[in-house]
């Protein structure tokens, strides 16, 4: 949105949660305030038998006194009137990990290569986002295809976060056998 109003941010039209299922590798992210997933972030989405979308996510975190670990997170999505906008209720496999209730918007995706995720946690008085986070996901662990980069850059602009992203490294730190 040119005016950066959260309510004007365009999302994926006719989002199909069934086609979104499976594994997504975070290749870039914009962090919120506070504790967050650092790198090696992989999310896996699934539609349960009752039609509810769920997801698990893993990523490297540093909690408390510089304790480095892989956070195993789990989330359940609540539908809203817009098929691309969900509320995500999430918690960690271990009690000392974070719980939360965030927006989960799919700004854009082609389902097969890339996805742009966005969550605003706190609105400013003027309707812009005061605290939010965003992931650029790829189906390919090596990163985005050159063909998708143009699209993704345009969508970063739509969510008013162009220039605010950092690359997400995949070093194998959280790989499980
Ligand atoms: C997301 C993909 C869908 C499932 C989930 C996601 C979010 C996870 C977090 C986790 C934070 C963990 C912290 C631990 C100390 C959007 C990646 C659950 C926000 C800070």
Overview of the molecule:
The protein has one helix and nine strands; from the N terminus they run ββββββββαβ. The protein is mainly β. It has an eight-stranded antiparallel barrel with strand order 1-2-3-4-5-6-7-8. The longest helix has 13 residues, at about 145-160. The termini are far apart. The model has no long low-confidence stretch (mean pLDDT about 95). The site of ALL-trans axerophthene has 16 residues, from β3, β4 and β5. ALL-trans axerophthene binds near residues 36, 37, 75 and 90.
Write a compact overview of the structure shown.
This protein has 177 residues and is mainly beta. The chain is built from one helix and nine strands. It has an eight-stranded antiparallel β-barrel.
Q: Keywords for this structure?
A:
mainly beta, 1 helix, 7% helix, binds ALL-trans axerophthene
Largest sheet: 8 strands, antiparallel, barrel
Low-confidence stretches: none
Residues in β-strands, percent: over 45%
Class per helix and strand makeup:
mainly beta
Specify Rg, calculated over alpha carbons: 15 Å
Give the arrangement of secondary structure elements.
Blueprint (H helix, E strand, L loop, with lengths): L21 E9 L8 E9 L5 E11 L3 E13 L5 E8 L7 E10 L4 E10 L5 E10 L7 H13 L7 E2 L10
Antiparallel strand pairs: 1-2, 1-8, 1-9, 2-3, 3-4, 4-5, 5-6, 6-7, 7-8
The chain binds ALL-trans axerophthene.
